[in-house]
Amino acid sequence: MHPAPDTAAIRALIQRSQDAWDRGDGAAYGACFTDDATDVTYMGAVYHGGAEIGRGHQALFDSFLKGTRLTVEIIEIRRYNGDTAVVVTRGESAKRAPKKLGKLATYTVVRDADGQWRIAAVQKTRRRALMEALTFTLQPASRPAAR
Questions:
Q1: For residue 1, what pLDDT is reported?
Q2: Is the CATH number of domain 3-142 3.10.450.50?
């Protein structure tokens, strides 16, 4: 498969996970992950495997996350071989359109044995803009290159 179709398929995978979230469909959300996936939430909870990720998120979709929509902006996709890529995103989950995208997520995606792209790992981090600005002001050399 060529890089452009794979990139489109990877983008479609992230979109499928977003669509499942927006529907509050834990099973569909979990199906976006490999059987041995790891999902580290921004609060530090660790889910293992697509089935557990789906079950855990269904409980959240039915309670704390009920009615939320996931906004995802892909910052970059880096391919490492024909079957592995890293996707960096910023996003937010909210009931209304977010004013800012305050979370970052790093996904490792793989082409599974059935030829479909799935999420093997995701780690989510809440962006601390004030701490970031303070750090970059006090230590300008710590500022990463703009993207």
A1: 46
A2: yes
